[in-house]
Amino acid sequence: MNHLTIVTTGGTIDKIYFDDKSTFQIGAPQIGEILGAIGVGFTFDVIPVLRKDSLHLTDEDRELVRRTIEAQPSRHVLVTHGTDTMVDTARVLRTVPGKVIVLTGALNPARFQGSDAVFNIGCAVGAVQVLGEGVHIAMNGRIWDPLRVRKNSAANRFEAA
User: Fold this and answer.
1) pLDDT values of the chain reduced to their tens digit, one per residue, 161 residues
2) What SS3 class is residue 134?
3) Model pLDDT for residues 10-23, shown as the tens digit of each residue
4) Is there a contact between 158 and 139 (Cβ–Cβ < 8 Å)?
5) Secondary structure of residue 150 in the 3-state scheme
6) Closest by Cα among 96, 98, 118, 97 to 107
């Protein structure tokens, strides 16, 4: 892989919390800064498509993500996404031909100390380079088939469905 296209949709990975409001906003995508700081050995571009919590994504939003990925010349695509409906979006993206697509996110914002964001991004970057054509989810140190995984909200992790 010489080039990676990154499509961002928002989600916890990009959340910014405000102490005085006890609310959050979806900030700018963090993945470009993370990959730049690590000094990866490939080029990448970041396409921010949405800035939403995944619970607020609609069928139209998922279609926009699908069309955006289809329009990219790069074969390798990484999608950052909120974890609550990541599986739903991954299943929609299964219709995209000729690409290796890996979705990842974080259970804690990338800006937080001890966040799983950098680890999940690293797993996703490795996965997108070695996996075959299709759609995959990289979370909790594992690569998942979107048809055989679910988020266990009570345990705050992904597991076999």
Assistant:
1) 899 999 999 988 888 765 555 666 777 788 988 899 888 999 999 999 999 999 999 999 999 999 999 999 999 999 999 999 999 999 999 999 999 999 999 988 888 878 899 999 999 999 999 999 999 999 999 999 999 999 999 999 999 99
2) strand
3) 988 888 765 555 66
4) yes
5) strand
6) 118
For residue 97, report the phi and psi dihedrals to the nearest 5 degrees: -85, 155
Distances (CA, A) of 158 to 8, 23, 71, 123, 149: 20, 25, 30, 14, 7
CA-closest candidate to residue 46, choices 2, 86, 84, 80: 80
Q: pTM for the whole thing?
A: 0.93
Closest CA to 55 of 151, 141, 157: 151
Residue with tokens 């914002």: 109
**Beta carbons of 99 and 77 less than 8 angstroms apart:** yes
Burial class (CB in 10 A: 0-12, 13-18, 19+), 36: exposed
- Residue 104 Cα distances to 17, 22, 63, angstroms: 20, 26, 18
